[in-house]
Structure formats: C-alpha cells, structure tokens
Amino acid sequence: MIPSSFKAFYLLPFILLGLVAGISGGWIRLGYPAIPLAEAASQHGLIMTGGFLGTLISLERAMVMAKKTWLLIPFLSGISVFAFLLGLSDVGLLLLTTGSLGLSLIMHLQTLKHPKFHSALLYGGAVSWFIGNFLSWQTGLIAAGSTWWIGFLLFTIVGERLELSQFLPVPSWSQNALKSLLALFTVGLIVPFHTWGNEIMGISALLIAAWLLVFDMAKVASRKAAQFRYIGIGLQVGYLWLGIHGLIVMGMENQALYYDLMLHTFFLGFTFSMIWAHAPIIFPTIFGIRETPYHPVLWITWIGFQLSLLGRIVASILGEYELRKILGVANGYLILIQFLLMAGIILWKMNQNKKVKPGRNRSHAKELENKTFLHTRV
Predict the structure, then answer these.
(1) Over 50: is that where the pLDDT of 163 sits?
(2) Average pLDDT, the chain
(3) What is the C-alpha separation between 232 and 371, in angstroms, rounded?
(4) Other C-beta atoms within 10 Å of 9: how many?
(5) How do residues 192-218 score in pLDDT, each as one tens digit?
C-alpha cells in the first residue's frame, strides 16, 4: 500500500535516473562513454521509453485517480531502471510489462468513467505499450516492441491534445478523418513491419502530422506572446518532426541508418518537442506546484536541441558519422540542460513568491490559476 503521506514528487528521482541513464546509454552507442554504464547502452531503448517516458506518463495518469495506491504503477516502471542497470534485463522487462498492464487498467477505468474518444485513444496507447513490452519480453528482441512503443506515444500524445482541446469547435468530418488515420496507423502496427507495415505506418504518421498542423490549436497559440508562443511553436515543430518521421519510415528503408533515423525522428524530434511544449501545462499538475517551468531563456536550449537533432539526422543520411556523433552528444547535453533550466526556473519563481506580501501572494496564485486554465485550452 502507498501511505497517505506519499507524494508524486517522490517519484521524480526515478524519472530523472531514467533520463540520465537513457541519455548516457545513447552516448555510449554513439562512441562517447561519458558515463561508462554498459547496461545503459544495451538497454537504451527500454530505459528511455519505459523507465523515463513510461514512468512520466503513468504518473500523470495515476494522479487523476482518487486513491494513491495507483502510484504503484509509475513506481514499478521507475524501478525497472535499477534492474536494467544491474544487468537484470528479464526483471526490468517484467516490471515494465506489469507497469504497462497497470496503466492499461487505469485507462480502462478512466475510459469507463469518461467514455470519450480521447480517453479511448489514451487507453489504446497504454495497451500498445503493454504489447510492445510483452513482445520484447517473450522474444528477447527490443526491436520486436519498438513500433508498438511508437504507437504508445503517438496515441498518448494525440489523445492528450484532444483532451486539452475537447471544448474547442472542430469540424465533425475532420474528427472522422483523424479517427480513420489512427485506425490506419493501427493496421500498420499489426501488419509485419517489413512487408507493408512500414509504408502504412509512414503514410498515416505523415497524414496525422498534417491533421495536427491544420486543426490543432497550436497555430493560434503560436501567434500569441510569451509562454503561449513557446507552447504553440513547440507543438508545431513537434508535428513537423512527426511528418519527417513518416517520410523516413515509408521511403528510406534501404538507408544504412534507417532504424536509427526512424526511432530518433520520433522519440527525440516528436516526443521531446511535445514534452517541452506540454511542460508548462503538465508539470505543475503532476508535482502539485503553482509555478510553471517557463522563462524566455528556455528558447536558447530549445533551439539548440532542434538544430542539433536536425544536424544529426542530416549527418546520418549523408553518412557523416563523426559529425553525427558530435551532434548526437550535443543533443543529449541539451536535453539535460533544458530540464535543469526548468527546475531552476521553478525554484527561482518559488523563491520570488515567498518574498511577496501575503495579500499579493493570494492575488498571484489566482492569476496563475487563471493562466493554467487558459493553457489547458491551447
């Protein structure tokens, strides 16, 4: 049982360990052993998608549940990182499989309570994570689960975008079009990847990206100022990365680094762009704070992240392996710096708020509540 005094913040070290271990494993695979953990390299994909992203998403969904017992789910996926780093890969995969099954149960209950399309899509994302983990566990091949993990994050992110914008008017025909595209992507997951699966996944991912660019409210937010613009542009750039991912999946199968290009345009380009954009909305909710992790200084590392990743992708396509290594290492550092900056911004804002008079504090809190309400409508 989870004690009543337990807070979601206590799971933050597991999430951070997953991030650092995952990045260090990626560095080793690039030939840069800054943190020489051999198991982090061999389990790089499982640690990043499960130990880091899976734990973060499970925590977000468990926080909605009434009982804190559900926090066991992100705890299970979080401690899988320790198992992987200790060389206990079977234990780590079992923990991830159990955690993803738990997230599927959470989403089953939430879908029953709120039977809407975005809930069903989030449910589908959780089930996709479970299928990917189960396949990797049963076959011993990480690649067996990688496309399902892509489905996990795509369904989850699109579901969250629909959830945050559910009260905004969208033409009914466009909603039906999106449902059809997501169904097509699901077919691509089921069909063997190297027959027609990759073409189906690639085409549907490209068209889903186009749908989001046209119908998501990111384009409205990007025309506003400050945090709204940061969120809006971040989302739009993420959708562009999803489109690039789709093009690579369906048209570059004969490229020497095809698998690397396919994974990193999605997991770094699309997924991390979504994390940066959603952070001002999601992080305060998850960790129970009023301060949002936004400051204009974030633009510096955000632009650096995007450019270094784009350079890495171009270098991979051109076969410039040394440049690919340099830019890949820089990309990892920029991810870490971005998270450190967000943490520093939150602490700085908390310190500033303590210096404000009590009356002003109440006014400031109300202002932040209003801003949070508006952000959820982005």
Answers:
(1) yes
(2) 89
(3) 15
(4) 11
(5) 888 888 999 999 999 999 999 999 888
Q: How confident is the model at residue 282 (pLDDT cuts 50, 70, 90)?
A: confident
Residue with tokens 């632009």: 303
